[in-house]
Design brief:
Low-confidence stretches: none
Largest sheet: 7 strands, mixed
Strand order of the largest sheet: 3-2-1-4-6-5-7
Helix content: 40-55%
CATH topology: Spore Coat Polysaccharide Biosynthesis Protein SpsA, Chain A
CATH superfamily: Spore Coat Polysaccharide Biosynthesis Protein SpsA, Chain A
Order of helices and strands: EHEHEHEHEHEHHEH
CATH class: Alpha Beta
Length: 247
Amino acid sequence: MLEPVVVIPVYNHPSTIGRIAHAVAALGLPCILVDDGSEADCAAVLDLLAQGRAPQVVLVRLATNQGKGAAMAAGFAEAARHGYSHALQIDADGQHDCADIPRFLAQARQWPEAVICGCPVYDASVPRGRLYGRYATHVWVWINTLSLDIRDSMCGFRVYPLAPVTALLRRTRIGQRMDFDSDIIVRLYWRGVPVVNLPTPVRYPQDGISHFRMWRDNVRISLMHARLFLGMLWRAPLLLWRKVARP
């Protein structure tokens, strides 16, 4: 039986996190907010959300900003501690449509062992540079998995089965910042966790705050792809055998 919880990593999104948390609560879902060292104004909003919705909302607080990956790892640990089977990740900046959460969970019920991964459908608000830049990561992910099974590894709207995630995190250090989303889904795929791609609208709101730093994060992502490529080389026979053996 699916026992899902919504996990939202938050770093200085005081103007959007309230709307997202209330939308999750309106769906009757439990929620873990992970405060990734936010400044005082956002921390105060998170305190109010946790106090007003407890025990439906659990607040996990990291003392300093450690990055999206570290925040999600803390959220996964909290979810596992409470006995949930699946964690639905959604970003705090308002890019994702909370009305799509039931669609993601319906897919997770149909494919409980898979990662249900959002495949963005952009509107006119998407910055062209960000849109085109994603394709470099797509190509590297296709190389590092020897497949086209992961349509978009950077989307932060997805459902994870917690058992393989916690097993992976016990053994492997996953990217701690903007390299997290691609790193974890490739490594789960290597471990045999299937991926179901689900188209979902993604927009860039005018009041949204992005913490993506062009040079720093692109370097970090490039290094991640290099590590994954080396890991793919010795896994290549197994990955290729899976393609042949797949019914």
